[in-house]
Amino acid sequence: AKARGRNGYSFYAPSMTGEGVERLRLETFLRRSIEKDEVFLNYQPQVEIDTGRLVGVEALVRWNHPELGPVPPVRFIPLAEDTGFINQLGKWVLFEACRQMVRWQADGLYVPKIAVNLSAKQFERGSIVNMVSAILRETGLEPQRLQLEVTESVIMNTGDALVFINDLHSIGVGLAIDDFGTGYSSLAYLKQLPVQTLKIDRSFIKDISTDPNDEAIAIAIIQLGKSMNLSVIAEGVETEEQAAFLLRHGCYLAQGYYYSRPVLSGDLLTRWRPKP
Ligand code: C2E
Ligand code: CA
Ligand code: CA
Ligand code: CA
After folding, report:
1. Which region holds residue 256: left if phi is over 0, alpha if psi is between -120 and 50, else beta?
2. Cβ pair 63, 30 in contact under 8 A
3. Among 5, 54, 88, 139, which is 20 to 30 Å from 107 by CA?
4. What residue range is the signal peptide (predicted)?
5. Over the stretch 209-219, which tens digit does the pLDDT of each residue have?
6. Cα 105 to middle of ligand 2, angstroms
7. What pTM was estimated for this model as a whole?
8. Cα(9) to centroid of ligand 3, in Å?
9. pLDDT, tens digit (0-9, with 9 covering 90-100), for 52-100
10. How much distance in Å is there from the Cα of 235 to the middle of ligand 3?
């Protein structure tokens, strides 16, 4: 395939499609993103629906490349997972998130909890409990204030996930199942896991008041959470109507654009720090 190089000249790469070249370029950039200070975190508030009280935040990684501009996580997270870079990135995210919690507190904002996403790959290198506890120790964040988010497929597809998750539980770190309802249908694993929170996937919330199937699924998840004594949070809440529906059906926590988009740490402070 012929591709146009950065300086306008063409080169021939027999084994590579244009897509392959693009991917390689992205991969090369991504590998240097941390050292070049191009990655940062956004934080999305999690609120109690009836009071509007801030109960936590979810940390979401952002990558802004000088040439490419902002690259969305859906593009670079899978690449980071494929290349193994996710281990470095994941560690950076975790450290930054924990450190930010302590900073907010010093600045007069107590954020009860922070949720951090974990990829399957981060479980494959052996126990991640050492990494997590080192970061907690270094930053001084209480383990109870950290909640790790994993999807159902991470749990089902990772051989020793159960062992590692139990290790994390034993040091006091919380666990949430992300995108709940979109993964494996087997619920048996829920019983064996020290999980505290289910996050109802955004796809069920989107048409909650118009699509009877989504409505039924959301209600079923809320009920399941209740009967298993888990806390349930809805993600992707964009309207007052959705929030009202959730509250009516016993889901008390929500996250979504209706409350706030993911924001920079300073903006979170401005909006949520109690006024003197
Ligand atoms: P996720 O964990 O399910 O995160 C929620 C995504 O939904 C975020 O997208 C967030 O910005 C978006 N969102 C929140 N509220 C709304 C809403 O009301 N409406 C709509 N349409 N979207 C909403 P984002 O930040 O682009 O992240 C996408 C995915 O990338 C995340 O999905 C997560 O799977 C992954 N990701 C992000 N940060 C990290 C990270 O630090 N580590 C890992 N392993 N994955 C991450
Ligand atoms: Ca998440
Ligand atoms: Ca999610
Ligand atoms: Ca998702």
Report:
1. left
2. yes
3. 88
4. none
5. 889 999 999 99
6. 23
7. 0.93
8. 43
9. 999 999 999 999 999 999 999 999 999 999 999 999 999 999 999 999 9
10. 6
